[in-house]
Structure formats: structure tokens, C-alpha cells
Amino acid sequence: MATIEWRSPASEMAVRQFEVAAERLNLDGNVAIRLKRPDRAMIVSVPTRMDDGRVQVFTGYRVQHNDVLGPFKGGIRYHLDVNLGEVSALAMWMTWKCSLVGLPFGGAKGGVACDPMQLSRNELQGMTRRYTAEILNFIGPDVDVPAPDMGTNEQVMAWVMDTYSQHKGHAVAEIVTGKPVEIGGTLGRKEATGRGLVYSIMEAAKHLGVDLSRCTAAVQGFGNVGSVATKELASVGVKVIAVSDRTGGFYDPKGLPVERILEYAAKNPELSGCPFGAPISNTDLLELNCDILVPAALGMQITGENAGRLKCRILAEGANGPTTLEADDIIKEQDIFVIPDILANAGGVIVSYFEWVQDLQNFFWTEEEVNKRLREILTRAFHEVLDISERDKVGMRLAALMLGVSRVARAMLWRGLYA
Ligand code: GLU
Q1: Tens digit of pLDDT for each residue in 27-79?
Q2: What confidence score (pLDDT) does residue 3 get?
Q3: Would the CB of 230 count as within 6 Å of ligand 1?
Q4: Ligand 1 pocket test: which of 65, 82, 94, 103 has the largest number of ligand atoms within 8 Å of its C-beta?
């Protein structure tokens, strides 16, 4: 077999997950072979003028996995670990995620290997604009629509939108989602992933007959997903006993003061120094005795090594790919209800879809409308996955993959192979 440039632990994991679902679905071999690899993968050099006058060349990526259902869709990640393999895995997961929740989008992901915390605002803007320019001919409102992911935010999306618009000669709001509301963003997008995660936890709790007001939760990661999930969990009566970010975490079995931690996080770039609870490491947090565990940070946090020590009842995956294949096998043997990443964190891309639709129509919705439709879509998807899981006696992860993959495969069979 020819060298597969995008091979990496993350892409091996994504491909293996796909193979298991494909086998179970008895998928047409000619379709399966195409879905194992991305449609298109780009590596670009991103020369950036640093504040000291030097030029630094960052490496950027955009991987477009499959667009049979509609324009490619997926975030842009700024992180030192970004590489072709990771971006390819994330792009594949986007394909299944969009399909699973019934969006007319394909899957993509992009990123730049950098530490955004180490860049000044000026450097970040220069890098973002040049990265956008490098992929400009491969994105577009009906081609590929980027969004935020780890290390990027609404400001970065505003620069992407502006760069694209300057090249076109007019404002093109619909080129990117997760923008500030003032330039065509939607109400409720920033909160969408964390909020959606909690909607899916509420459905899981109903299914399991668990009373959320008696539950405890531990949340790993305090970025856009983790912080909103923490807030929303507290608002439905869950006692949050631990939170963390990349600098470490805080734990209090009696419950942390969520409002005050959110205030602290709004004023400080990291949680270190937060005066609430006792310090706890990111790895120890995962092993806490709690009802709901939310990994909402990096991928591959739950591994063959620590999976056997999880003590939660519900594992709600806010992050993309937080659980390795080995860990998954171990978790299957335990009494843990998994809400897999492509379902649990789909709220972000669902509201991205709403943003894109509103931009295309120049007609904007209220936040109530956004949240109501988000909840409807997620609840429907949750039950579709649960039905497959019960009918076919497979775990929730495999059921979600089976649903996502089967819709994509059916569309590919209808459209055929252009050759
Ligand atoms: N980066 C987010 C994800 O992984 C959102 C993608 C989007 O909104 O397009 O789902």
C-alpha cells in the first residue's frame, strides 16, 4: 500500500472506528474504501511577521474529508499538536457528526501548529489572515465553511471573514460561523456546544432514570465547551465537584462555587491560582467518583491505562476523540453510559448551521428560537442513536457511527462515482 501521509495515532483511531462501523453495517466495499481517506488534504506555509520584525513560518492545514451531503464544514484549531494526521481524524469525525444530526454538510477541519497563548494579538491576526489567504481558493460559503475549534474564537473568525471578504470585494458573512453577532454571527453560538452537551446529558439521565439534582460532575477543560457545560450543569441542579484547564484543576466533594469560578475565569487567562477547592491534576480528575464525567479538553485523555479506573455513570464527551480504542473496549465492560463525541458535542456545528442559514437569508432569529431548534435536533439524534444501540445491541459510540456513516454511504451510492 502506498504511504498514507496522514497516518497518525488520531487518524488510525478514526479509521479503525470507521472500519468497525462499516463492518457492522455491511457497507459496500467500494464506498468504504473511499471514506477511509480524505477527499483533499492541504498543507500550507503561513509566513507571519512577528513583533520583533522576524518572519516565522507556521504550518497550516485544511483537510476536507467528504462533501457528499453538502459543503465541507469544520473548525480551525490552533495548537502545538496540530498535524496532518490529527486534522484528518477531526475532519472525518466532522463528516459523521454532521450526518448523524442531519445537517446538509460534509466534514472538514483545519489548523495551524502554534501556541496561540504565546502570540501577540498582532501576530495572531497576521497568521490568521495569511492562513486564510493560503486556503482561500478551497473554501467558500457553498464549498467549505470554517468555524472555531480549540485555540480559536470569535475574533479569529472575524479576521477570517474579513480576509475572505476583502478578496471578494464585499462582506461575505456566510464564509465562516462562530463570528461575533455584530458581523453576522448568531445568538447562542458561543454557548452551543456546552449547552448541547447538557441537553444530551439530560436525555441520558431521563433514559437511565437518574435525577440530575442528585448528581455530581467533573469537567476536564475550561475552554468554550467546558466552561459553558459547567455553567449549564449547575443550572440544572448538578453539583460540579471538579473543573480543570491546562494548568491543573480544583476539586471540592461538597461542590464548587460555579458562578465564582466563571467570574475568575472571565478575568484570568488560566485557572491556576483559583482560590476554590483543593488542587487536582487533570489525570486524577478523570478518576474521581462522580456521576457525570465530561472530558472537554484534548483528545486521547481516556486510555487503556486509566479507563479501568473511571468511576462515573455517564461519560459525556465534549472533546473530539477523548477516548482511545483500547479505553473504549474497557469501558464497554463497565456500567458507564457513553454519550460519544460526535453526538455530545454536535451542538456547536448545529448552531453553526443555523448561523450559515441566517447569513444566507439575511434573516436573524432570537436566542430562544436557536436554543429550541438546537434542543429538538439533539434530542432527536440522541434517540435515534439510542434506538440503534438497543436494536443492534451495540454501544452508543458504535450506534452513533453507524447512523452517521450509513447516511453518508447512502448518499454516495445515489450519487455514484464520477470517473
Ligand atoms: N469545531 C467544532 C466541532 O468540532 C464546531 C465545528 C463547526 O461549527 O463547524 O464540532
Answers
A1: 999 999 999 999 999 999 999 999 999 999 999 999 999 999 999 999 999 99
A2: 57
A3: no
A4: 94
Quick one: which of 102, 40, 91, 92 has its CA closest to 69? 102
Categorize the per-residue pLDDT at 1 as very low, low, confident or very high, splitting at 50, 70 and 90: very low
Task: Please tell me the distance from the alpha carbon of residue 183 to that of residue 188, in angstroms, as a whole number.
Answer: 14
Strand partners, 108: 64
Domain-ending residue, one of 339, 365, 395: 339
Q: Cβ(179) to ligand 1 under 6 A?
A: no
* Tally of domains within the chain: 2
Answer whether residue 377 is part of any domain. Answer: no
Q: Write out the catalytic residue numbers.
A: 109
Tell me which residue range forms the domain holding 325.
192-339
Q: Model pTM?
A: 0.97
Residue 417: exposure state from Cβ atoms within 10 A (0-12, 13-18, ≥19): exposed
**Are 156 and 272 contained in the same domain?**
no
Measured from the Cα of 346, ligand 1's closest atom is 10
One domain, residues 41 and 91: yes
- Whether residues 220 and 78 fall in one domain: no
pLDDT (0 to 100) of residue 7:
86
Residue by residue, DSSP assigns 289-311 as: --SEEEE-SSSS-B-TTTGGG--
pLDDT at 324 over 60: yes
